[in-house]
Specification:
Blueprint lengths: L1 H12 L9 H12 L19 H17 L4 E7 L4 E6 L2 H9 L10 H4 L3 H8 L3 E3 L12 E9 L6 E10 L6 H37 L5 E5 L2 E4 L1 H4 L5 H8 L7 E4 L3 E10 L2 E12 L12 H13 L4 E4 L6 H8 L4 E4 L3 H4 L1 H13 L4 E4 L6 H11 L5 E5 L8 H6 L2 E4 L7 H15 L4 E2 L1 H9 L5 H15 L4 E2 L6 H4 L9 H16 L4 H8 L3 H11 L2
Parallel strand pairs: 11-14, 11-15, 12-13, 13-14, 16-17
Antiparallel strand pairs: 1-2, 1-5, 3-4, 4-5, 6-7, 6-10, 8-9, 9-10
Helix pairs in contact: 3-7, 10-11, 13-14, 16-17, 16-18, 20-21, 20-22, 21-22
Length: 543
């Protein structure tokens, strides 16, 4: 079988479609090729990894007990976090340990399939199911001497994938018992997480109830994958993960700053020396930063800028589809008529231009969508109709990707509408407003709001409106929970909140990657970084 798989691997790398390889392996090979993984040689990247997580504290004693049963069995046990980074390893024999050290199967190295291609840990996390990768079924040739069997570990309460377990042996020692060992480990770890969660959550609930009795305002209790909040705290729409990252190293009893210029008293909840949670009792505004006068929001500023420019001549609003470019223009021009330049191709230049001229002669403000599509004779005709028209607004893409004759001829001033992913501070309010349009009695659960904030919103505000509309239909008990959101939005709930600098970097990387047609090698060269560094950033930013 090994010879057949080796031949299949060679055929695939030569650009052929082998028929004698398992379907799940072939699919993984295709993903690996699309990710730009080098099949000849790759080094699993080292990433900063927390080696003292709740999963590690629960799973390692269980895996150590299993290791005692495997002594002399020429195998390796490994535990990885949800990103595929190794957080613990045990090896039964020195020779296998040397092999695995050479392959970087050591703490801190990441085996995400996008970095390393088909492998036990990465493929199990990618597919969400047990993965058996035998010798030459690995995408990268240097791993052909070993067999890996891995399975994801899902938290029994949150259902989120928190990590994966893996058993590795030499390819010639592959046997069906490896799958049995992995399944047994996953079952025991899930049972351990359930027991620990019940004890931990009771402790967090007790701390919350004590704080709630003495408070009149918002009270919020946080822990790993746990949020307990009163109604006042829910109304604040705070981001659990963002706050949790900021308070884990703070001193007990200290005052911490929260978004919206709030201050809270911090009370840590401990299990021995480990911090398992925190209670935040909101005490009020931060006087040192609370402004005397609220600054205008982004929409108000953009609207004011657009009106100012429109009073002096034509103005073009650039941005991605769905960002609200036409809405901004129709708000700036009262009683404007909206025309779509894309229909000029269908209707014909002459009749379309006559319709435009009728509005121009009547002095009606005109908002022209998709102005960039008008080229050649059409641009000349339309520019002539619009010549001197004072109330003209146009929409165009965020970036100029080629000649734009009409825009060049009308000489419009430019306003840029940023995409929704750069306006994370507005997402919660936008989602709440949209939700009220469908059912004023509904409210978002904290984990649902966190997912909405962290999702990339490629369709911008238009996509947000659709997602909220559909979620409102799935709401249960007056609450829109995480389960009511689409899968792609739910997946963002586990992502950490990016800093403004990280958001800027992720936007640049996404733009360069798009310009390079998804070719990661070309994108890395354009960005001036190594491909490994690019892969690490793509994984970190979930691009």
């Amino acid at each position: 079988m090994s010879t057949g798989i080796s031949t299949a691997w060679e055929q695939f790398q030569a650009g052929q479609e082998p028929g004698d390889v398992r379907g799940e392996v072939l699919t993984s090979w295709r993903r690996s090729r699309f990710s730009g993984v080098d099949p000849e040689y790759v080094d699993p990247p080292y990433v900063e990894t927390d080696l003292d997580t709740h999963l590690v504290r629960v799973a390692v004693p269980i895996m150590e007990r299993m290791a005692d049963l495997l002594v002399g069995d020429r195998s390796c046990l490994a535990l990885a976090d949800a990103r595929g980074s190794v957080v613990w390893r045990w090896v039964s024999e020195p020779m296998l340990r040397t092999t695995l050290d050479r392959l970087s199967v050591v703490k801190g190295h990441c085996f995400d399939e996008e970095f390393v291609g088909t492998n036990g840990l990465g493929t199990a996390l990618e597919t969400g199911s047990i993965a058996v990768v035998r010798g030459p079924e690995h995408f990268v040739q240097r791993f052909h001497d070993v067999t890996c069997v891995a399975a994801p570990v899902r938290h029994p309460i949150t259902r989120r994938t928190v990590g994966a377990v893996n058993v590795t042996c030499r390819a010639e020692h592959t046997n069906p018992l490896l799958t049995v060992v992995v399944r047994k480990l996953v079952e025991e770890i899930r049972a351990g997480l359930l027991h620990a969660a019940s004890t931990r959550e009771r402790r967090l609930l007790d701390a919350f109830l004590v704080a709630q009795r003495g408070a009149t305002g918002p009270v919020l209790t946080l822990g790993d994958d746990v949020v307990i909040a009163n109604a006042a705290a829910l109304d604040l729409g705070l981001d659990r993960d963002q706050i949790w990252e900021g308070i884990r190293d703070r001193a007990d009893g200290s005052l911490v700053g929260l978004p919206s210029h709030l201050t809270a008293r911090l009370q840590l909840v401990r299990d021995g020396s480990a911090t398992t949670g925190a209670v935040l009792t909101v005490t009020g505004d931060r006087p040192e930063v609370a402004p005397r006068r609220a600054a205008p929001d982004r929409w108000t500023r953009l609207l004011a800028e657009t009106r100012t420019l429109a009073a002096r001549g034509p103005v073009v609003v650039r941005g991605e589809p769905g960002t609200g470019r036409a809405t901004l223009l129709t708000s700036a021009f009262e009683d404007a008529v909206v025309l779509d330049a894309a229909t000029c191709v269908v209707d014909g230049v002459a009749p379309w231009a006559r319709e435009l001229a009728r509005h121009v002669r009547g002095g009606t403000p005109v908002v022209l969508r998709h102005a960039e599509v008008l080229t050649g004779d059409a641009a000349t005709v339309v520019a002539g109709v619009l010549d001197g028209h004072p109330a003209l607004g146009l929409t165009a893409p965020e970036r100029r990707e080629g000649p734009e004759p009409l825009l060049d001829r009308v000489g419009a001033a430019t306003v840029t509408m940023p995409p929704l992913r750069r306006r994370t501070d507005e997402i919660a309010d936008m989602a709440r407003r949209e939700l009220r349009r469908h059912d004023a009695a509904l409210a978002f659960a904290p984990d649902a709001l966190a997912a909405l904030r962290r999702y990339g919103w490629p369709g911008n505000g238009r996509e947000l409106a659709r997602v909220v509309r559909e979620a409102a239909r799935r709401a249960r008990g007056g609450v829109v929970g995480l389960e009511a959101l689409p899968q792609e939005v739910r997946a963002s709930a586990t992502r950490r909140a990016l800093t403004p600098l990280e958001r800027a970097e992720s936007t640049v990387i996404a733009a360069v990657l798009q310009e390079c047609g998804g070719n990661k090698s070309a994108a890395a060269k354009e960005l001036g970084i190594s491909r490994t560094a690019l892969y690490a950033k793509l994984r970190s930013y979930r691009l």
